[in-house]
Amino acid sequence: MVNHVTRDMELRQRAWDAAAQVVDPEIPVLTIADLGVLRDVSVHDGEIEVAITPTYSGCPAMNMIAVEIEAALERAGFHKPTVRTVLSPAWTTDWMSDDGRRKLKDYGIAPPQAGSGRRALFGVEQVACPQCGSTDTETLSEFGSTSCKALWRCKSCREPFDYFKCH
Amino acid sequence: MTAASITVSETPLVLYALRRADDALILGHRLSEWCGHAPMLEEDMALANMGLDLLGQARELYAYAAKVEGKDNTEDTFAYLRDVRQYRNLLLVEQQNGDFARTMVRQFFYSTFADLYWRAMMNSRDATLAAIAAKSEKESAYHLRHSSEWMVRLGDGTEESHRRAQAAIDDLWAFTGEMFSVDDSERGLIDAGIAVDPETLRSQWLKIVSGVLGEATLARPANDWMQKGGRIGHHTEHLGHLLSELQSMQRTFPGATW
């Protein structure tokens, strides 16, 4: 019995590590673990089940992420892993890891402001330019190239940039 | 060869989920019609983004309706293989895009309602509906902000943008009452704490709409006669045309995938 439990824990850890390597197809510097999209990995009778959560309801990357997780697990030696989607509790940008925020910024995307409630969106946001760090920035478009991003512009260095929206 | 329509066992909960799903699908489809045609690139992206959010909400609600119904129907058959009389969406959302002002007024009326509605539904005793609402509510807040800003920009813009926005408000106003109507099927779910009673949202909706219209120097119509019928499948002539496009592939090549 103890052996079973230990074995399941090891399997779970190995499966988690494999799934955690999968990257967001739209933002390839972030893994699904960085994003907080990877919710849970469980083991039932040696079978692996991975739970993921969507960032936005219609995010088309979710199907691809699910396929990539299955492929990553099969490469790691797990047979017929299943991926299910959970909606609750709803994903928020606060789940993004600090490491993920740093990687986003280095990639040229301003990270979401930690801990800000969505309703605070109706106030004025202070978003720092990921290129030069200036907060003298303005919104160009509330909606950007993917569901999770808005388009901003830095008035100091004149560069446009993506901002990962608070959610 | 064309694919036949499905039959649906519309128990109160199935019907409830389908009504909300149909609102989201049809409005999302209308927004997608703008793709490549919006007045500017940023707006093209905004309309497509909002349409995508709505499509996502529709999929979750259809999937839940299919699970509750427990038959062979799926999110796809609900969307592709129901005829116009089987659709349960609000008349408001099927109205044609018209000019940009008309699209934005329609979006503003709906988003104001949806934002209040999803937030209330987060307290549903039905865990799946509460979870879908918690996701949708974040998205509707963006749609509301975006359309509110456009109301002000159009209403308080040029003479022409004002005229067009006011004309759209006057034309679409009669379709707003349906959002607050409740029938017996839904009343039972409201009493059970599963569904939201839209009547409790009416005064807040009016307050937000009046506030934004005031800021936009636009007038709220005095005529309060309201049109209805969408919730029981009595639609305006526009929905059939929309569905013929939305469903043409599956009707012509049943079960086609890629």
Class based on secondary structure composition and strand pairing of chain B = mainly alpha
What's the overall average pLDDT of chain A, rounded? 88
Number of domains in the coordinates of chain B? 1
Shape of chain A: elongated
Report, as a whole number of angstroms, the end-to-end distance of chain B.
19 Å
Strand order of the largest sheet of chain A: 4-7-6-5
Report the mean per-residue pLDDT of chain B as an integer.
96
Extended strand count of chain A: 7
**If classified by CATH, what would the architecture of chain B be?**
Up-down Bundle
Query: Could you tell me the radius of gyration of chain A in angstroms?
Result: 18 Å
Given helix and strand content, the structural type of chain A is alpha/beta
CATH class of the largest domain in chain A: Alpha Beta
Radius of gyration of chain B: 18 Å
Beta fraction of chain A: 15-25%
- Return the CATH topology of the largest domain in chain A: GMP Synthetase, Chain A, domain 3
Just give the CATH class of chain B: Mainly Alpha
Please provide a written account of the structure.
The complex is a heterodimer of chains A (167) and B (258). Chain A is of the alpha/beta class and 167 residues long. Chain A has helices spanning 2-20, 32-35, 61-75, 98-107; strands spanning 38-44, 47-52, 82-85, 109-110, 137-141, 149-154, 160-164. The termini of chain A are far apart. The mean pLDDT of chain A is 88. Chain B is mainly α and 258 residues long. Chain B has a single domain, classed as Up-down Bundle (Ferritin). Helices cover 63% and strands 0% of the residues of chain B. Chain B is built from 11 helices and no strands. Chain B has helices at residues 12-32, 41-69, 75-80, 91-94, 100-121, 127-155, 159-172, 184-191, 202-215, 237-246, 248-252. In chain B, helix 1 (12-32) runs antiparallel to helix 2 and helix 5 (100-121) runs antiparallel to helix 9 (202-215). The longest helix of chain B has 29 residues, at 41-69. Chain B is globular, with a radius of gyration of 18 Å. Classes of the chains: A alpha/beta (167), B mainly alpha (258).
